[in-house]
Design a protein that fits this description.
The complex is a heterodimer of chains A (255) and B (360).
Chain A lengths: L4 H4 L25 H15 L6 E5 L14 E4 L5 H11 L4 E7 H7 L1 H10 L4 E6 L2 E2 L5 E2 L18 H4 L5 H6 L4 E8 L3 H19 L4 E7 L3 H4 L3 H15 L3 E5 L1
Parallel strand pairs in A: 1-2, 1-3, 3-4, 4-8, 7-8
Antiparallel strand pairs in A: 5-6, 7-9
Chain B lengths: L2 E6 H12 L3 E4 L7 H9 L8 E4 L3 H13 L4 E5 L1 H6 L1 H9 L4 E7 L15 H5 L10 E3 L4 H18 L2 E7 H5 L1 E6 L8 H7 L15 E2 L6 H21 L3 E4 L6 E4 L2 H16 L4 E6 L1 E3 L3 H8 L4 E5 L6 H9 L5 E4 L9 H13 L2
Parallel strand pairs in B: 2-3, 2-4, 4-5, 5-7, 6-7, 11-12, 11-14, 14-15
Antiparallel strand pairs in B: 1-8, 6-13, 10-12
Helix pairs in contact in B: 1-2, 1-7, 3-5, 11-14, 12-13
The chains are: A alpha/beta (255), B alpha/beta (360).
The complex binds thiamine diphosphate, iron/sulfur cluster (SF4) and magnesium ion.
């Protein structure tokens, strides 16, 4: 007898399910966007660690501004670049909660540079997730502090000219030098192994927070197909060929 | 137990904050208000009441730390002086947009620019018009004594929580730096996290299964929904004007000329009223205590009684605009003020009133 769908959909056959912490809201990200994958992984990790009731997330200004629509936890939406200060305020007043910020490269490494460095330097016991797509996605593809040399963006239409625009800023290396950070790593989310590694990092970062170790900082090198003007497959290839040499993956600090 | 002490206005703010049970203070040094954080750091309230005190890397950071703390339903405050308050405006707009209570103290110094560290009242317009982007207002209280510096910490928090709106204590270098006798209230308990979660169901306290998730935000992309939100906020400001206008009158009953002044300038004007009365000129003083909501109705009433009003302030003429709006042309309203950190004498005010209304 032929197998029917109803015979396959059984609990014992379940290999993967959407975590219950993800809401039913349709994500607003462009197809292939790294944000959606990382949002989902954060939801899974919070669910797996069973810390939903004890977690407060801080969203940035950038494409992930509406991240609070997708994960079933309490959220605080910060001003552009100020998430580490908002996270500091929350954590200092609620040290019993897990606090994380989620920020883009413009948010974390340009307008919020001071807040990022000082939160890390104080060793605020929080997690900072840093989505480095080398561009200002939300505002339509302008140059970011992390835009690569020669890379085109709407405010460097002929490619980033380092003489004129300065060189790409490696914020992750900078924060790794600060005494307050306990765990600094650079990951990606474009393949199944990368996703598994990133999830492990996220789990570790929340555990660091439980153990009051200081600031955990996870950079995720990602793509922005719309800003880069490529399709998602081309974007991933371009990222591997061009972003990874400048932003190499792996742990930078783990104490 | 309450206690009588001799102290600076800035120190009184710090003492009152601890005693009222404030949960967190975030600040950045600037003259003439640095004693607020210095006093707090010396008193180490984290060891007694559990109050958090943190020196931030900038005023931008301190207002945003407050934003985070306020979202948790905590009583958070900061203090600064003019240039630092300018840096906080984006954050204040977010706090107002997210409908969060908090208290900010501005110990005003003369501007524009780096200006002077001497007292001024030149941040009035910034204070009463919201100060940052968007249609919002702060609740603005103007203390004119060290006692009021202490008392207004509590009042500002009560109003901020009543309306879920940031409150500003608009002081100046004179009130901040001068020493006076002050009665400090007895120590109150801080609210427990459990009590807080019940009292402020909107706060980010961690999502239990019993409620929807709480989101502190000021974003609304649907224009019709955002217009409805703006109407709701404006309704709060209307309610403030009905229920929470505060002012003080000094010899207004039979006044023919009215001085209008707040804060340190109002103290000087009390003496001017006395000098004018000695000269046979029936003068009175109206001192707005809430600059927002402004006691416009009261001024309008007095406009039917007096022959002229003189707004006296340490600025080029900011308060005077609100007085003119309030009386809407019923009586002449003139302005007198010194600027740049210069403080007027009571005699100068007398002269200004005579010159404007009684001579020629
Ligand atoms: C004070 C302020 N300046 C500028 C903006 C406009 N703005 C919104 S998002 C953004 C850049 C976002 O880029 P990034 O942080 O890299 O996030 P992405 O969208 O790429 O994820 C800018 C400049 C703003 N909202 N606030
Ligand atoms: S613009 Fe870029 S960063 Fe933003 S959602 Fe689209 S792909 Fe993602
Ligand atoms: Mg970006």
């Amino acid at each position: 007898m032929a197998l029917e769908v109803k015979d396959i959909i059984k609990p014992e056959n379940l290999v993967y399910a959407k975590t219950k912490l993800l809401t039913e809201r349709m994500m607003h990200y462009c197809p292939g966007c790294t944000h959606g994958v990382v949002n989902k992984l954060i939801a899974e990790v919070i669910d797996e660690l069973n810390i939903q009731e004890d977690t407060i997330g801080v969203t940035p200004v950038g494409c992930s501004v509406l991240l609070y629509n997708y994960i079933e936890i309490d959220w605080h939406e910060a001003a552009h670049g100020r998430a580490p200060a908002v996270g500091t305020g929350i954590k200092r007043l609620r040290p019993d909660k897990y606090v994380f910020t989620y920020q883009g490269d413009g948010d974390l490494a340009a307008i919020g540079t001071a807040e990022t460095i000082h939160a890390c330097n104080r060793g605020e016991n929080i997690l900072m997730v840093f989505i480095n797509n080398g561009i200002y996605g939300m505002t339509g593809g302008q140059m970011a502090p992390t835009t690569l040399e020669g890379m085109k963006a709407s405010t460097c239409p002929f490619g980033r000219d380092v003489e004129h625009d300065g060189r790409p800023l490696n914020m992750t290396s900078i924060v790794a030098t600060l005494p307050g950070t306990c765990y600094v790593t650079r990951q990606a989310a474009h393949t199944a192994p990368a996703v598994r590694k990133l999830k492990k990092s996220l789990r570790k970062a929340f555990e660091n927070q439980k153990n009051k170790k200081g600031t955990s900082f996870i950079e995720v090198v990602g793509t922005c197909s719309s800003g880069w003007k490529m399709n998602p497959v081309q974007s991933n290839k371009w990222m591997e060929a061009n972003m990874f040499p400048i932003y190499p993956l792996g742990d930078i600090k783990d104490v | 137990m309450s206690e009588l002490r001799l102290m600076k206005g800035n120190e009184a703010i710090a003492e009152a904050a601890i005693r009222y049970g404030v949960d967190g203070y975030f600040g950045y040094p600037i003259t003439p208000q640095s004693e607020v954080m210095e006093t707090l750091m010396e008193l180490r309230p984290w060891e007694t009441t559990g109050m958090v005190v943190l020196q931030a890397e900038s005023e931008i950071a301190s207002i945003n730390m407050m934003y985070g703390g306020a979202g948790c339903g905590k009583k958070v405050m900061t203090s600064s002086s003019s240039p630092g308050i300018s840096l906080m405006q984006e954050g204040l707009s977010y706090l107002a947009g997210a409908e969060l209570p908090c208290v900010v103290v501005n110990v005003v110094r003369g501007g524009p620019g780096l200006g002077t560290i001497q007292p001024a009242q030149s941040d009035y317009s910034q204070a009463v018009n919201g100060g940052g982007h968007g249609d919002y207002n702060l609740i603005v209280l103007a203390p004119s004594s060290v006692q009021e510096m202490a008392d207004f910490v509590e009042l500002a928090f009560e109003l901020a929580f009543k309306y879920r709106n940031p409150a500003l204590i608009l002081s100046d270098g004179m009130i901040g730096q001068m020493m006076e006798k002050v009665e400090l209230k007895a120590q109150k308990d801080r609210m427990s996290d459990q009590e807080l979660a019940e009292k402020y169901p909107w706060a980010t306290t961690g999502k239990p299964s019993s409620r929807e998730r709480n989101i502190i935000t000021s974003v609304e992309l649907d224009p019709y929904a955002f217009e409805r939100f703006n109407h709701k906020v404006q309704a709060k400001y209307k309610q403030m004007h009905k229920e929470d206008v505060r002012f003080e009158q000094f010899q207004c009953e039979d006044a023919e000329y009215l001085l209008v002044a707040y804060g340190s300038s109002a103290r000087i004007c009390q003496k001017s009223v006395q000098l004018l009365r000695e000269k046979g000129i029936k003068a009175g003083l109206l001192r707005p205590i809430t600059l927002f909501p402004f006691p416009g109705v009261e001024l309008d009433k007095l406009a039917g009684q007096v022959k002229g009003m003189l707004a006296v302030e340490l600025s080029a003429g900011q308060l005077v605009r609100d007085v003119r709006l309030a009386v809407n042309g019923k009586v002449p309203v003139e302005h007198f003020g010194r600027m740049g950190g210069v403080i007027h004498s009571p005699e100068e005010v007398v002269e200004a009133l005579e010159k404007n209304f009684l001579k020629g």
